[in-house]
């Protein structure tokens, strides 16, 4: 079943059936002022922290309520509806709607009873308030007397948990005022303004109307809704009068009614505005919307220009619409959202995590490098400054990170504050692909010599940071000579024990050694090259000897020597990541790669993607296999974990297996499930954390939308893998790995400030490889373009 479609031209996803199987969300603003909104206007807002700066309330794990509601009312017939289908939920036979999720804005169009409404929700660029711009049009042939009523539900406390559960306190600290005939002002801890206590401050929020007069107002949730009523039939809306009540020792809300008469064909524009500001600051904001239509259009244009100019830095035109939609807009936009929001706030994450996960964040950066290398650079610097001087990464980098002065997992204070008891084996190793990809994309070779502080003390060049990351692993080897498991590797559920050994991490280390050698060569550091050559050779031999088993790489060794992921194990005998990373790391021979990838396809592949391992743990889990806690076919317990889909796509593409790479793309791409939304349930335009697999009665259902490392791995799998964009220090290799029936396709890419227009022709139906390449009419020797040969604009033709 299909609920919407991709509008590639406008970079929007259009939901034309509002009864979606789950709330389908979009992100507005930034963590400075963040807002999440569903296709039925459910969602919440916050300043700086989803957990501690919560402004608008949302009830998690419920039915997508409350939200940013605009009710419309025919004041003659007393009939009422909402500008988003829910919460009133008129019959879809008579109520028509479209929700357009765009890049940092969402527009709701509805038509009911010959009244057309359009609400545009957005947070203006670099501003800390949100706007709900409304246009109502009378499409009937007679004048209509109408009301529009805006409703938002304030939290009673900035802390989301306090608001939800500590009612004996939070109900008694909030009150509302009606101010200046244009707004409800909510004040929390009002007296603190006059007599400070415990350093706390009074907090103020507002809900205002601009461009129309307030006819009635309400600042008390229960008065607005009415006891035994709900969001779908609020008494204030039914009555057409909000009663002018304010809250005191009860739940606050913002409710504002405006009344107007529209002649046939006439429209009216006005805007509701929400923010965390006092009355003066709110009035300054409201003053900017005296002409809401013009002011809001200008702000929307700025937003679109900002986001589209970034996305346009890489665009593809291939025979696959779902590939184009994901790569050009939605996977790319999701990469920016994960890059900016980390795992802060969604309909699954409530914002309680008080920092950045090291591995997650370093990987998220990879998703935007090809689109905005300057943004990536800033975050790379930040993450390097969260590397401890022993070379390991801080498992959690606090939002208040103070480079050079942080405690580490060696300090009880860090453990107590973050809940992370130890270093993880993989964190700092993610720096290698990320730093390499950034330098190769940008050509900023000097970055390797930039001096950056360590998290706890001292400083060093980027080169030194990377060397210490190698040292971190080499100083902590297990009994077989591979990196010790420490607290965990990428798989949070895999506790191999402090001296256990993960094949995945060993492969990451092997890859890291290859990368640091490039830098060492650049710096003529011969002694270090010799050192790396010798340890890499040894590591490679060890992995080959200890981890290769006939047709697969095992998952690792538990402390004490038990093999995990042997083909003879009754459960979890086949694991995905050691196979894909055997290829990505360059460790596996060509023959091993072919065999291991074939084993993946045979034993792990399903119609919805590749399982993380199989069979699931049920009765034979080792002590430390925490995934046993999950139902079979779910998450790390043989679910289709989404993030590794990007790695297997990349691995197949690196092998030149275009058909297989695309098969995996298709299986796991949200867009491919657009017409099967009743199975996937999650938004068809964004990746989730995992998909339920064989063994679940809901095979194919996806979970945990938006904020997932999948965004970046799938992006890399598509851009570097399938499209074959492989920059290095000196230029760019173009090596597509595509379905053999793609006869031609085009890529437009900005590379180091130059425009590349690449036409790929594949007349003989290959999956990879090249016959010829011309750059601005000149035939080159290989499918590699040295950066210094590029003009400002470049026509490139590659024949496969
Ligand atoms: O790698 C982790 C990630 O850091 C958090 N989510 C789960 C992944 C796999 O366990």
Automatic annotation (TrEMBL):
SUPFAM superfamilies: Galactose mutarotase-like, Six-hairpin glycosidases. Residues 306-724 form the Glycosyl hydrolase 94 catalytic domain. One of its GO terms (molecular function) is carbohydrate binding. Keywords: Glycosyltransferase, Transferase. GO terms for biological process: carbohydrate metabolic process. Pfam families: GH94_b-supersand, Glyco_hydro_94. Residues 11-292 form the Glycosyl hydrolase 94 supersandwich domain. It comes from the Bacteria. This is N,N'-diacetylchitobiose phosphorylase. It comes from Coprococcus eutactus. The lineage of its organism: Bacteria, Bacillati, Bacillota, Clostridia, Lachnospirales.
């Amino acid at each position: 079943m299909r609920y919407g479609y991709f509008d590639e031209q406008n970079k929007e996803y259009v939901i034309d059936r509002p009864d979606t199987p789950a709330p389908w969300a979009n992100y507005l603003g930034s963590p400075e002022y963040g807002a999440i909104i569903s296709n039925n206007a459910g969602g919440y807002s916050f300043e700086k922290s989803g957990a501690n700066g919560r402004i608008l309330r949302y009830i998690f794990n419920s039915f997508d309520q409350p939200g940013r509601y605009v009710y419309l009312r025919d004041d003659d017939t007393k009939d009422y509806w909402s500008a988003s289908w829910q919460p009133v939920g008129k019959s879809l036979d008579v109520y028509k709607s479209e929700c357009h999720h765009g890049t940092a804005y969402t527009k709701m169009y509805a038509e009911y009873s010959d009244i057309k409404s359009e609400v545009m929700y957005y947070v203006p660029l670099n501003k800390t308030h949100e706007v709900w711009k409304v246009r109502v049009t009378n499409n009937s042939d007679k004048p209509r007397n109408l009301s529009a009523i805006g409703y938002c539900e304030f939290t009673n406390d900035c802390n989301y948990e306090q608001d939800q559960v500590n009612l004996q306190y939070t109900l008694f600290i909030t009150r509302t005022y009606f101010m200046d005939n244009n707004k409800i002002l909510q004040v929390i801890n009002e007296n603190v303004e006059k007599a400070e206590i415990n350093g706390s401050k009074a907090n103020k929020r507002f809900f205002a109307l601009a461009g129309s007069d307030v006819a009635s107002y309400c600042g008390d949730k229960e008065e607005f809704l009415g006891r035994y009523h709900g969001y779908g039939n609020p008494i204030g809306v039914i009555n057409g009068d909000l009663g002018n009540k304010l809250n005191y020792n009860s739940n606050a809300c913002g409710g504002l009614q405006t009344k107007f008469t529209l002649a046939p064909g006439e429209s009216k524009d006005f805007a509701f505005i929400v923010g965390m500001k006092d009355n003066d600051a709110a009035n300054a904001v409201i003053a900017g919307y005296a002409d809401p239509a013009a002011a809001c259009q200008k702000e929307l244009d700025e937003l679109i220009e900002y986001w589209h100019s970034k996305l346009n830095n890489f665009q593809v035109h291939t025979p696959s619409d779902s590939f184009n939609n994901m790569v050009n807009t939605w996977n790319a936009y999701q990469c920016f959202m994960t890059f900016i929001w980390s795992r802060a706030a969604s309909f699954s994450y409530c914002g309680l995590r008080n920092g950045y996960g090291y591995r997650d964040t370093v990987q998220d950066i990879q998703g935007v490098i090809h689109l905005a290398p300057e943004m990536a650079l800033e975050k790379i610097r930040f993450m390097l400054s969260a590397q401890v001087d022993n070379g390991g990464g801080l498992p959690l980098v606090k939002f208040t990170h103070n480079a050079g002065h942080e405690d580490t997992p060696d300090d009880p204070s860090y453990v107590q504050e973050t809940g992370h008891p130890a270093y993880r084996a993989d964190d700092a190793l993610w720096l290698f692909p990320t730093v390499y990809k950034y330098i190769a994309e940008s050509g900023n070779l000097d970055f390797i010599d930039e001096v950056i502080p360590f998290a706890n003390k001292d400083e060093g060049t980027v080169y030194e940071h990377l060397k210490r990351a190698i040292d971190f692993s080499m100083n902590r080897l297990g009994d077989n000579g591979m990196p010790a498991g420490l607290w965990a590797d990428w798989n949070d559920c895999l506790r191999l024990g402090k001296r256990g050994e993960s094949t995945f991490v060993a492969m990451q280390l092997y890859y890291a050694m290859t990368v640091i050698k490039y830098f060492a060569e650049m710096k003529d550091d011969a002694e270090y090259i010799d050192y790396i050559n010798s340890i890499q050779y040894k590591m490679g031999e060890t992995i080959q000897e200890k981890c290769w088993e006939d047709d697969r790489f095992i998952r690792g060794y538990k402390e004490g020597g038990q093999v995990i992921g042997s083909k003879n194990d009754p459960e979890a005998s086949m694991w995905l990541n050691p196979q894909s990373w055997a290829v990505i790391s360059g460790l596996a021979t060509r023959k091993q790669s072919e065999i291991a990838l074939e084993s993946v396809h045979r034993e792990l592949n399903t119609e919805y993607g590749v399982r993380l391992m199989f069979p699931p743990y049920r009765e034979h889990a080792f002590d430390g296999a925490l995934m046993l806690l999950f139902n079979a076919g779910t998450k790390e317990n043989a679910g289709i974990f989404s993030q590794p889909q990007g790695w297997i796509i990349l691995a197949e593409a690196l092998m030149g297996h275009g058909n297989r790479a695309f098969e995996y793309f298709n299986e796991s791409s949200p867009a491919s499930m657009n017409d099967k939304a009743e199975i996937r349930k999650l938004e068809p335009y964004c990746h989730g954390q995992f998909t339920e697999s064989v063994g679940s009665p809901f095979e194919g259902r996806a979970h945990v939308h938006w904020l997932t490392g999948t965004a970046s791995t799938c992006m890399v799998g598509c851009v570097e893998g399938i499209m074959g964009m492989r920059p290095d220090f000196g230029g760019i290799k173009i090596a597509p790995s595509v379905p053999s029936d793609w006869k031609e396709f085009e890529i437009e890419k900005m590379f180091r400030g130059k425009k590349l227009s690449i036409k790929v022709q594949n007349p003989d139906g290959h999956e990879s490889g090249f016959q010829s390449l011309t750059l601005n009419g000149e035939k080159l020797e290989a499918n590699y373009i040295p950066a210094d040969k590029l003009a400002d604009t470049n026509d490139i033709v590659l024949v496969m």
